[in-house]
């Protein structure tokens, strides 16, 4: 049995409601550090909402109510006294569809850096180059760094978003079905990157394809309509699920 | 100061700037409403509504603005009607069933540009025609000028209302055997009705309130017109000609006219907004 | 051909005729104005008319320069006031305000857009003119009647608010939420997201809003003529009277329509107005259409 070493993210009695409708109900989970945790479950059951609660992105809408605790490295990030941009700095977000910012490739990657630190141009260049290399995009774009990012293919854009996310040196990488909009080759590239990156970052991956979860996950959380049915190490969940509902989902899901 | 504090401070400062800005906008309107009410309310009495101005254009000390009220009605209502009749033809034509997208883009752009033309130019255009035909200031050309003015506004409004009718609905009607025109009229019109009404109302509001286009075309008199070749007063031209009068009671007439105009505008805003909300409900998704 | 099909054909053709006529209307007006300007262009060259600064039709002097400058001054000054206020208001409405506040502000903007220009003029006359005359101008050490460039610009700015605000709000809210989320998730504050992402993504729409606002302000006749002072000279201070092209047309109509040369001069003024407003509106609407298409996919 694998021991859960470091817990990076932990939620206690987390509830997320829009008006009267509660999407996340009484969720208590633990996400281990520097591993890839997959959040699985049927579509529309709150996986993305749970993910976006970790970097407090849900608060963009003014009708959302969040209660409970989300502890990141022991600190409750829902504490209203905390600076939200600082919290978000710790988390990188990779969305379903890549959304490059309306600027050049270089500026996209440098965006976070420029905001948070007064970085010297040379150091900035180095970091941008590093991030683009890490996300496997460098050799494809090194000659057109200052062209608009919108000119890239979808697969390239997603890798750009990845480079952009790791440029701010987050501790956690939140990925929301990052390959669902990509062709198989590009999807494979992203998956390879996620596996590579989990050595340095805690990766939380929302996916609705079980195969992907089986391929990549170290740890799994099964979320069913806002409630956690089961969570644990990957081979436990996939091979020996304790909950009958989990077994149903794993067996029944063809993909 | 730490970086994050600086950034938060910058945000706070700009937030204050934003709130000041929106307050300026809101307060401007409040001031406008306030001025009109304060000055207009005191001048309102039964006389104002039921009597025409007496004693001459600028010097008439007694009487009311009945001539202006009636003038506005006989100018704006027919103009809105004509603009609607012509406009509905154009708007229906613009629905995709009939034309290629390029032609309809061009027509929509033309309408937008016509909408942006200052109303005084419509007035001058009509004056040129009037001079050519030898007709003087008249109700007839006031109506024509207002029709031209309202046409782009109403047409575009109806066009926008009809555009949102889902294509599937129209296709469904085709398959049941209606001809192109019948479909267009029945299906589209019903779905878009509230939006169409809203557009017509807004056009009416524009027509009632516009001064420059009727300045030279319908002129200004104290009397109620008896034929379409008579000139006539109207609410906006009353304000324009009387606001500066050295005589208090004459100015009162301008204020009363402004008051009435403002009420009309407020009513139209409320009703057309309510209609727009209704059209959202009706549209079958 | 059965009756329904025949009726269909007639109606379609009729609509086509009407629609074509509407599109032609623009050209009709243009050519009529050009034609009517012919008379004055026989005797004076365009450069004379546009660049000499004395306007005195009684003495056959038709220099429009001062009036053109006056129009430009009033328009640009009003935009300088209106653009920041409108932009920041639009940002507030679309990004910072609660739903309830937005519901209240909407009707305000609708009404503001619907107020007739003569009512704007009246309010400017009753409210702004005394304030400028009795407080603001003296504060600058200047004597003024209150009927001046300053007053006209402020009145115009308020008239332009609804146009710019509503176009900008429409543009800001059309930006996909995920793009804003992308910026925020990198640790940017909301304001930084506005600065670096929203403004950039909306830049074409903002430009078109400004252009359309310019067209509106340039062509505004009644309100301006009520408070600008109507003096066809280049003002040497903010508090001196000024004259604009549309205001000139409104106020000198009577005297100018008598004699052919003078009438033609007026038509020429109308022509200039028509062309300038047309160009700004054309570019503005064109950009607007292209950006609307952008976010559809």
Write structural notes for this entry.
The complex is a heterotrimer of chains A (255), B (285) and C (297). By secondary structure, chain A is an alpha/beta fold. Chain A folds into two domains: 1-90 and 172-180 and 201-255, Rossmann fold (3-Layer(aba) Sandwich); 99-169, no CATH class. Chain A has ten helices and eleven strands. Chain A has helices at 47-54, 84-89, 105-116, 121-134, 138-141, 154-167, 184-197, 210-216, 234-239, 244-252, and strands spanning 7-18, 21-27, 30-32, 36-40, 64-72, 75-76, 91-94, 172-176, 202-206, 219-224, 227-233. In chain A, the strands form two sheets. A six-stranded mixed β-sheet of chain A has the order 7-8-9-4-10-11, with helices on both faces. In chain A, strand 5 (64-72) and strand 6 form a beta hairpin. In chain A, 47% of the residues are buried. Chain B contains eleven helices and two strands. Chain B starts with a helix and ends with a helix. The model of chain B is unreliable at 55-59 (pLDDT under 50). In chain B, helix 4 packs across helix 6 and helix 5 (119-133) packs across helix 6 (139-163). In chain B, 48% of the residues are buried. Chain B has a single domain, classed as MetI-like fold. Chain B is globular. Helix content of chain B is 75%, strand content 1%. Chain C contains twelve helices and two strands. In chain C, strand 1 (55-56) and strand 2 form a beta hairpin. In chain C, helix 4 (99-114) packs across helix 6. The longest helix of chain C has 41 residues, at 3-43. Chain C is globular, with a radius of gyration of 23 Å. The chains are: A alpha/beta (255), B mainly alpha (285), C mainly alpha (297). Chains in contact: A-B, A-C, B-C. Chains B and C meet through helix 1, helix 3, helix 4, helix 5 and helix 6 of B and helix 1, helix 3, helix 4, helix 5 and helix 6 of C.
């Amino acid at each position: 049995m694998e021991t859960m070493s470091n817990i990076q993210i932990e939620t206690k009695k987390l509830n997320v409601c829009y008006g009267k409708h509660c999407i996340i109900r009484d969720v208590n989970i633990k996400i281990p550090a520097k591993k890839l945790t997959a959040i699985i479950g049927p579509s529309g059951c709150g996986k993305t909402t749970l993910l976006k609660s970790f970097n407090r992105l849900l608060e963009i809408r003014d009708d959302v109510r969040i209660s409970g605790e989300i502890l990141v490295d022991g600190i409750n990030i829902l504490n209203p006294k905390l600076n939200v941009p600082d919290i978000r700095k710790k988390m990188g977000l990779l969305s379903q569809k890549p959304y490059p910012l309306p600027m050049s490739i270089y500026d996209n990657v440098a965006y976070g850096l420029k905001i948070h630190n007064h970085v010297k141009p040379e150091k900035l260049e180095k970091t941008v180059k590093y991030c683009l290399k890490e996300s496997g995009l460098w050799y494809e774009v090194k000659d057109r760094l200052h062209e608009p990012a919108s000119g890239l293919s979808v697969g390239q854009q997603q890798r750009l978003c990845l480079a952009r996310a790791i440029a701010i040196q987050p501790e956690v990488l939140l990925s929301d079905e990052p390959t669902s909009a990509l062709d198989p080759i590009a999807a494979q590239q992203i998956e390879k990157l996620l596996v590579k990156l989990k050595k340095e970052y805690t990766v939380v991956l929302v996916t609705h394809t079980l195969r992907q979860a089986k391929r990549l996950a170290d740890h799994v959380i099964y979320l069913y309509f806002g409630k956690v049915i089961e969570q644990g190490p990957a081979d436990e969940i996939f091979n020996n699920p304790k909950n009958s509902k989990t077994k149903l989902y794993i067996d029944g899901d063809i993909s | 100061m730490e970086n994050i504090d600086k950034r938060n401070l910058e945000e706070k400062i700009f937030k204050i700037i934003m709130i000041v800005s929106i307050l300026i906008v809101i307060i401007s309107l409040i001031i406008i409403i306030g001025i009109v009410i304060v000055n207009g309310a005191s001048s309102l009495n039964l006389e104002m509504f039921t009597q025409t101005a007496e004693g001459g254009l600028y010097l008439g000390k007694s009487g009311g603005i009945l001539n202006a009220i009636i003038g506005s009605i006989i100018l704006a209502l027919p103009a809105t009607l004509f603009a609607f009749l012509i406009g509905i033809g154009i708007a229906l034509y613009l629905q995709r069933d009939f034309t290629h997208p390029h032609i309809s883009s061009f027509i929509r752009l033309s309408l937008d540009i016509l909408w942006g033309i200052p109303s005084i130019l419509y007035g001058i255009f009509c004056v040129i025609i009037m001079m050519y035909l030898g007709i003087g200031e008249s109700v007839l050309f006031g109506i024509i000028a207002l029709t031209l003015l309202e046409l782009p506004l109403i047409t575009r409004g109806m066009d926008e209302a009809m555009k949102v009718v889902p294509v599937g609905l129209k296709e469904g009607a085709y398959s049941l055997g209606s001809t192109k025109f019948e479909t267009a009229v029945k299906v589209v019109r019903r779905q878009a009705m509230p939006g169409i009404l809203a557009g017509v109302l807004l056009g009416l509001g524009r027509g009632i309130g516009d001064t420059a286009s009727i300045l030279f075309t319908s002129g200004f008199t104290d009397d109620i017109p008896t034929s379409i070749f008579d000139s006539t007063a109207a609410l906006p031209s009353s304000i324009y000609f009387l606001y500066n009068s050295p005589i208090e009671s004459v100015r009162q007439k301008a204020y009363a006219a402004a008051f009435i105009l403002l009420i009309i505008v407020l009513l139209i805003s409320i009703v057309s907004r309510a209609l727009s909300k209704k059209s959202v409900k009706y549209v079958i998704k | 051909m059965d009756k329904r099909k025949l009726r269909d054909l007639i109606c379609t053709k009729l609509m086509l005729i009407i629609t074509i006529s509407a599109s032609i209307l623009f050209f009709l007006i243009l050519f009529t104005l050009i034609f009517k300007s012919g008379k004055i262009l026989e005797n004076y060259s365009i450069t004379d008319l546009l660049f000499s600064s004395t306007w005195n039709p009684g003495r056959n002097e038709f220099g429009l320069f001062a009036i053109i400058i006056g129009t430009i001054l009033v328009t640009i000054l009003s935009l300088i006031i209106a653009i920041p206020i409108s932009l920041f208001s639009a940002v507030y409405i679309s990004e910072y305000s609660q739903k309830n506040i937005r519901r209240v502000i909407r009707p305000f903007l609708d009404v503001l857009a619907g107020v007739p220009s003569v009512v704007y003029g009246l309010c400017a006359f009753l409210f702004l003119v005394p304030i400028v005359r009795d407080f603001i101008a003296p504060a600058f050490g200047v004597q003024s009647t209150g009927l001046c460039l300053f007053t006209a610009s402020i009145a115009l700015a308020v008239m332009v608010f609804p146009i710019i605000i509503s176009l900008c709000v429409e543009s800001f809210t059309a930006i996909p939420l995920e793009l804003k989320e992308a910026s925020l998730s990198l640790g940017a504050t909301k304001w930084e997201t506005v600065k670096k992402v929203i403004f950039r993504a909306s830049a074409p729409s903002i430009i078109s809003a400004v252009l359309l606002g310019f067209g509106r302000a340039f062509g505004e006749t009644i309100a301006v003529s009520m408070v600008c002072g109507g003096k066809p000279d280049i003002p040497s201070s903010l508090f001196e009277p000024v004259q604009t092209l549309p205001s000139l047309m409104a106020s000198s109509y009577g005297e100018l329509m008598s004699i052919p040369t003078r009438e033609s001069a007026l038509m020429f003024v109308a022509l200039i107005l028509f062309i300038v407003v047309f160009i700004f509106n054309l570019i503005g609407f064109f950009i607007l259409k292209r950006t609307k298409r952008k976010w559809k996919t």
